[in-house]
Amino acid sequence: MKGFCTHYKKKIKEAVYIVIAVLVIALFLFPLIWSLPYSLKDGREVFKMSEVGGSISWFPEKPCWDNFQEVFKVDVNGGRFLNALLSTFVVASCNCFFSILINMLAAYGFARFNFKFKNVIFTYLLFFMFVPGIAIQLTSIKVVSELNMINTIFVLFVPGMANSYSIFFFRQYFLNIPDSVEEAAMLDGASRLKILISIFVPLSVTPMIIIGVGAFLGSWNSYIWPTLVITENEGTLTQVSQILYMLKSVNSHDYGVVIASCIIAMIPPLILFFIFQKKLVEGIAISGLK
Amino acid sequence: MIKERSVTQKNGRKYRNQDNLGYLYVLPAVLMLTVFACIPLVMAVLRSFRDYNTGDWVGLSNFDYIFKAPVFLQSFGNVIGMAVVGVALQLFLSFLLAQLVKKSTRGFSGALKVIVYLPSLVSSVIVSIIYHLLTNHRGGLFANLMIIADLDPIVFGVDGIWPYVSIIVSDLWLGLGGSTLIMLAGMLSIPREYYEAAAIDGAGVFRVIFNITMPNLKNTFIFLLSTQLTGKLQMLDLPLMITGGGPANKTLTPVLYLYRLFNDGSGAPRNVSIAGSLIILVVIATLNSLAFFFLQSKKSEDA
Fold first, then answer.
1. Which chain B residues are closer than 8 Å to A118 by Cβ?
2. What pLDDT is attached to residue A289?
3. Which ranges of A113-151 would DSSP assign to H, the alpha helix?
4. Where in chain B is the domain with CATH 1.10.3720.10?
């Protein structure tokens, strides 16, 4: 009888957890799901006010697919949406690639070489982990303009490529790879670079995905830095977030188009997320274990 | 470190003096961080004592200006309030969520991890657009629900504490996924035997949480506390997009204020905002080390 009781209790407990889990999932998804049909609403329909005792119309009366075409026709200060998608994609991809490359090379140097002043240099780099962005951002504008980078595509990703945290993260990962793994390759006379490429890279897929996706998302979603350093060339170098921000301020009468542009802007991050979902979720977790 | 001097290659050559190659590997990162982080920081320190236009030495007058700007001090009060409440909620909720993920059955725990993390992909501009859709007092979802129930719609961007609530909730929605995953990893690294021993002793749920889970998550808590606090004290995007710092500068944060001051052009000298940014640097460094020391000493008392 007692066994039956505890079994019964366990089932109830499980059911309670399932109910809470479903509620949490619904809560987190709600803002995204709720917004979706609004992309097909006619301008006047988006902020339609309900009446006392009335109802809320979630779905559009007549789906207005034109919204998705309209997005590509809008022209905000010479910036066009398709153009912004392309240039942001190039910026984000470059940031992703070079962030992995530069930080991984540095981490390999710190993890597997024994040069003079190594710890001094490493501490120097780590120091910038604790410097808030605003303390360097304002004067960075001066630096990039001295380098003639203002209003070029490079200013959008070059300053942020090297990152103390990414170096630290890669290094931690490399330190956990046992020395014996590379000894055989060393005996065969493989160069250090070859060991990095053929042994370390395949073993470090998780941190590469974390840093790479992080860098891509950082560029894709960045708004403040582009507004500070792109003052001309707005037609070609305007970033997606800038277009969305301007659309939002200009187009409050036609919010369906704004939502449609948000949905299009979410596609690349979502694709990345679903490809690397498993590794991302597992890797973010490790980032807190030092 | 690998003992490469003792390794003899098959062709008889020895791995020697290759350690200096290390400089080459770290060079690009050192160069980039020097140009784009170290030099700007040094410039910021120098410029905070100078006039922006003439370059003349002006002593502490930039700092004097920023400390006398009532809005700057007010913005510090705002951000500290939002950061304290936001970080506390973030730690508490991510602890609960991580417990939920841990206790859920396989399928659900997998789905929870992915869904809770999903909002982290959304940019703050898009968050503000969704927020507008939900909370607009004329035709937003919440307003409509209130009208249907015959209540006065709340103006979320203006009324009472709602501007703060708006920013904190949006921030939680964006950030809970990451901290939950980190919390979960901390929980999973606690040896199972501890829990088994507690079960044998007949410890209740809360005793297990307070006496086993929490103490063993010390490092995770310190890590989350310091990263979250650092992040939230620099809040810029969300207040800018959601409330624009309003109403009446109630949700203005220091970084948003400085960013505006810098871009303003007309009003205050630009080096004033640079001086202000150094104050933020000092505050963040101090708070970070305080939080760290507090948790450390508290732990040693317990032990």
1. 22
2. 52
3. 118-127, 133-146
4. 65-302
